[in-house]
Amino acid sequence: MNVFLFLIAGYETTSTALACATYILALYPHEQIKLQEEIDRSPLSDANELEQLDLFIKEVLRMYSIPISFVNRLCLNDTIVCNQHISKGDIIQPDIYSIHYNSELWGPHDPYEFYPDRHRDKQRSPMAFMAFGNGPRNCVGKRFALLEMKLFLVNLLRKYTVLKSRKLESHFNIRELTLITPDEVWIRLEKRTQTVSNSES
Questions:
Q1: What distance, in Å, lies between the first and last C-alpha atoms of the chain?
Q2: CB atoms within 10 A of CB 192
Q3: Structural domains in the chain?
Q4: Contact 27, 164 (CB under 8 A)
Q5: CA dist 26 to 49, 57, 168, 172, Å?
Q6: How far apart are CA 176 and CA 149, in angstroms?
Q7: What is the mean pLDDT of residues 6-35?
Q8: What is the pLDDT of residue 201?
Q9: What phi and psi, each to the nearest 5 degrees, are found at residue 47?
Protein backbone atom coordinates (compact mmCIF):
# COMPACT_ATOMS: atom_id res chain seq x y z
CA MET A 1 0.00 0.00 0.00
CA ASN A 2 2.82 2.44 0.87
CA VAL A 3 4.48 1.74 -2.51
CA PHE A 4 1.20 2.65 -4.24
CA LEU A 5 1.01 5.91 -2.29
CA PHE A 6 4.60 6.80 -3.22
CA LEU A 7 4.30 6.07 -6.93
CA ILE A 8 0.69 6.97 -7.74
CA ALA A 9 -0.69 9.36 -5.14
CA GLY A 10 2.71 11.05 -4.79
CA TYR A 11 3.02 11.68 -8.52
CA GLU A 12 -0.22 13.64 -8.84
CA THR A 13 0.18 15.71 -5.69
CA THR A 14 3.82 16.64 -6.33
CA SER A 15 3.27 17.59 -9.97
CA THR A 16 0.31 19.77 -8.98
CA ALA A 17 2.33 21.44 -6.22
CA LEU A 18 5.11 22.17 -8.72
CA ALA A 19 2.60 23.71 -11.13
CA CYS A 20 1.54 26.05 -8.33
CA ALA A 21 5.19 26.77 -7.50
CA THR A 22 6.04 27.80 -11.07
CA TYR A 23 2.97 30.05 -11.11
CA ILE A 24 4.23 31.76 -7.94
CA LEU A 25 7.75 32.11 -9.37
CA ALA A 26 6.38 33.95 -12.40
CA LEU A 27 4.18 36.15 -10.24
CA TYR A 28 6.83 37.08 -7.63
CA PRO A 29 10.16 37.70 -9.41
CA HIS A 30 11.79 39.12 -6.25
CA GLU A 31 11.22 35.78 -4.51
CA GLN A 32 12.67 33.98 -7.52
CA ILE A 33 15.82 36.12 -7.39
CA LYS A 34 16.35 35.22 -3.72
CA LEU A 35 16.03 31.53 -4.56
CA GLN A 36 18.43 31.75 -7.50
CA GLU A 37 21.03 33.56 -5.40
CA GLU A 38 20.81 30.86 -2.73
CA ILE A 39 20.91 28.03 -5.30
CA ASP A 40 23.89 29.55 -7.14
CA ARG A 41 25.90 29.45 -3.92
CA SER A 42 25.21 25.76 -3.26
CA PRO A 43 25.83 22.41 -4.97
CA LEU A 44 22.86 20.24 -5.94
CA SER A 45 23.62 17.82 -3.10
CA ASP A 46 22.72 20.56 -0.59
CA ALA A 47 19.10 20.86 -1.79
CA ASN A 48 17.76 19.85 1.62
CA GLU A 49 19.87 22.53 3.32
CA LEU A 50 18.55 25.53 1.34
CA GLU A 51 16.63 27.60 3.87
CA GLN A 52 14.99 30.07 1.49
CA LEU A 53 13.85 27.24 -0.79
CA ASP A 54 12.35 25.44 2.20
CA LEU A 55 10.42 28.57 3.22
CA PHE A 56 9.24 29.06 -0.38
CA ILE A 57 7.90 25.51 -0.69
CA LYS A 58 6.14 25.70 2.68
CA GLU A 59 4.40 28.90 1.64
CA VAL A 60 3.33 27.39 -1.70
CA LEU A 61 1.88 24.40 0.15
CA ARG A 62 0.18 26.64 2.70
CA MET A 63 -1.60 28.65 0.02
CA TYR A 64 -2.27 25.69 -2.28
CA SER A 65 -2.85 22.64 -0.11
CA ILE A 66 -3.24 19.86 -2.66
CA PRO A 67 -4.93 16.90 -0.85
CA ILE A 68 -7.88 18.80 0.61
CA SER A 69 -9.93 15.71 1.53
CA PHE A 70 -7.22 13.23 2.51
CA VAL A 71 -6.63 14.36 6.09
CA ASN A 72 -9.34 12.38 7.87
CA ARG A 73 -9.11 11.07 11.41
CA LEU A 74 -11.14 8.49 13.35
CA CYS A 75 -12.23 9.59 16.82
CA LEU A 76 -11.16 6.86 19.27
CA ASN A 77 -13.05 8.15 22.31
CA ASP A 78 -16.06 10.36 23.04
CA THR A 79 -14.76 13.89 23.44
CA ILE A 80 -15.78 17.55 23.37
CA VAL A 81 -13.96 20.14 21.26
CA CYS A 82 -15.08 23.80 21.39
CA ASN A 83 -18.35 22.72 23.04
CA GLN A 84 -19.00 20.30 20.18
CA HIS A 85 -19.56 16.66 21.15
CA ILE A 86 -17.66 14.17 18.99
CA SER A 87 -18.59 10.52 19.41
CA LYS A 88 -16.27 7.55 19.31
CA GLY A 89 -16.13 6.24 15.73
CA ASP A 90 -16.88 9.60 14.10
CA ILE A 91 -14.76 10.60 11.11
CA ILE A 92 -13.23 14.05 11.47
CA GLN A 93 -12.03 16.09 8.51
CA PRO A 94 -10.32 19.39 9.30
CA ASP A 95 -10.97 22.41 7.10
CA ILE A 96 -7.41 22.88 5.85
CA TYR A 97 -8.23 25.98 3.80
CA SER A 98 -9.61 27.84 6.82
CA ILE A 99 -6.63 26.79 8.94
CA HIS A 100 -4.08 27.90 6.34
CA TYR A 101 -5.73 31.28 5.80
CA ASN A 102 -6.47 32.03 9.45
CA SER A 103 -5.00 35.45 10.27
CA GLU A 104 -4.62 34.54 13.96
CA LEU A 105 -2.40 31.61 13.01
CA TRP A 106 -0.55 33.17 10.08
CA GLY A 107 -0.46 36.89 10.85
CA PRO A 108 0.59 39.61 11.21
CA HIS A 109 1.15 39.53 7.45
CA ASP A 110 -1.98 39.04 5.35
CA PRO A 111 -2.43 35.25 4.93
CA TYR A 112 -3.76 35.87 1.41
CA GLU A 113 -0.39 37.32 0.40
CA PHE A 114 2.57 35.14 -0.56
CA TYR A 115 5.14 35.71 2.20
CA PRO A 116 7.60 32.82 2.78
CA ASP A 117 9.30 34.45 5.76
CA ARG A 118 6.19 33.90 7.88
CA HIS A 119 7.43 30.32 8.30
CA ARG A 120 10.43 31.54 10.31
CA ASP A 121 8.12 31.92 13.32
CA LYS A 122 9.09 29.04 15.62
CA GLN A 123 6.32 29.87 18.12
CA ARG A 124 3.47 29.02 15.76
CA SER A 125 1.44 25.92 16.60
CA PRO A 126 2.69 22.87 14.65
CA MET A 127 -0.96 22.12 13.89
CA ALA A 128 -1.26 25.34 11.86
CA PHE A 129 0.46 23.76 8.85
CA MET A 130 -1.57 20.82 7.49
CA ALA A 131 -0.19 20.32 3.98
CA PHE A 132 0.87 16.77 4.88
CA GLY A 133 -1.54 16.19 7.72
CA ASN A 134 -0.19 16.00 11.25
CA GLY A 135 0.51 13.58 14.03
CA PRO A 136 1.78 9.98 13.86
CA ARG A 137 -0.25 9.25 10.71
CA ASN A 138 0.81 12.17 8.58
CA CYS A 139 1.63 11.69 4.89
CA VAL A 140 3.97 8.73 4.43
CA GLY A 141 5.47 10.39 1.34
CA LYS A 142 6.18 13.78 2.95
CA ARG A 143 9.98 13.65 2.86
CA PHE A 144 10.04 12.09 -0.59
CA ALA A 145 7.66 14.74 -1.98
CA LEU A 146 9.65 17.61 -0.47
CA LEU A 147 12.90 16.22 -1.85
CA GLU A 148 11.34 15.84 -5.32
CA MET A 149 10.12 19.43 -5.25
CA LYS A 150 13.46 20.78 -4.05
CA LEU A 151 15.50 18.91 -6.65
CA PHE A 152 13.16 19.97 -9.45
CA LEU A 153 13.20 23.64 -8.42
CA VAL A 154 16.98 23.68 -7.89
CA ASN A 155 17.56 22.26 -11.37
CA LEU A 156 14.98 24.58 -12.93
CA LEU A 157 16.17 27.79 -11.29
CA ARG A 158 19.85 27.02 -11.78
CA LYS A 159 19.29 26.99 -15.56
CA TYR A 160 16.22 29.15 -16.19
CA THR A 161 14.26 32.16 -15.01
CA VAL A 162 10.49 31.68 -14.88
CA LEU A 163 8.59 34.58 -16.47
CA LYS A 164 4.99 35.54 -17.01
CA SER A 165 3.47 34.64 -20.32
CA ARG A 166 0.78 36.62 -22.07
CA LYS A 167 -1.77 34.02 -20.96
CA LEU A 168 -0.80 34.08 -17.28
CA GLU A 169 -3.47 35.78 -15.21
CA SER A 170 -3.06 37.27 -11.76
CA HIS A 171 -4.92 34.21 -10.50
CA PHE A 172 -5.65 30.81 -11.95
CA ASN A 173 -8.70 28.62 -11.87
CA ILE A 174 -8.62 25.84 -9.31
CA ARG A 175 -10.64 22.64 -9.63
CA GLU A 176 -11.51 21.02 -6.31
CA LEU A 177 -12.11 17.27 -6.38
CA THR A 178 -10.17 14.87 -4.18
CA LEU A 179 -7.17 17.09 -4.95
CA ILE A 180 -7.06 20.73 -5.94
CA THR A 181 -5.56 21.20 -9.38
CA PRO A 182 -5.08 24.29 -11.56
CA ASP A 183 -6.78 24.15 -14.94
CA GLU A 184 -3.58 25.30 -16.63
CA VAL A 185 -0.49 27.38 -15.89
CA TRP A 186 1.09 29.40 -18.70
CA ILE A 187 4.67 30.58 -18.16
CA ARG A 188 7.81 31.38 -20.17
CA LEU A 189 11.30 30.08 -19.46
CA GLU A 190 14.34 32.24 -20.14
CA LYS A 191 17.73 30.54 -20.14
CA ARG A 192 20.14 32.06 -17.64
CA THR A 193 23.57 33.15 -18.86
CA GLN A 194 25.50 32.44 -15.64
CA THR A 195 24.47 29.40 -13.61
CA VAL A 196 27.65 27.98 -12.05
CA SER A 197 27.69 28.09 -8.25
CA ASN A 198 30.72 29.32 -6.34
CA SER A 199 31.14 25.91 -4.74
CA GLU A 200 31.43 24.24 -8.15
CA SER A 201 33.68 26.79 -9.90
A1: 44
A2: 13
A3: 2-200 (1.10.630.10)
A4: yes
A5: 24, 15, 9, 12
A6: 22
A7: 85
A8: 37
A9: -55, -35
Cβ distance 75 to 88 under 8 Å? yes
Q: What residues have CB less than 8 Å from 191, skipping those under 6 apart?
A: 159, 160
Alpha-carbon span 25 to 21, nearest angstrom: 6
DSSP for 13-33?
A: HHHHHHHHHHHHHHH-HHHHH
In angstroms, rounded to a whole number, what is the distance separating the alpha carbons of residues 122 and 4? 34
Residue ranges with strand state E in the chain: 73-74, 79-81, 84-86, 91-92, 160-164, 174-176, 180-182, 187-191
pTM of the model as a whole: 0.84
Taking the C-alpha atoms of residue 58 and residue 118, their distance in angstroms, rounded to an integer, is 10
Residue 137 has pLDDT above 80, yes or no: no
**Per-residue pLDDT, 193:** 86
Count each helix (H run) and each strand (E run) in the chain, helices first.
7, 8
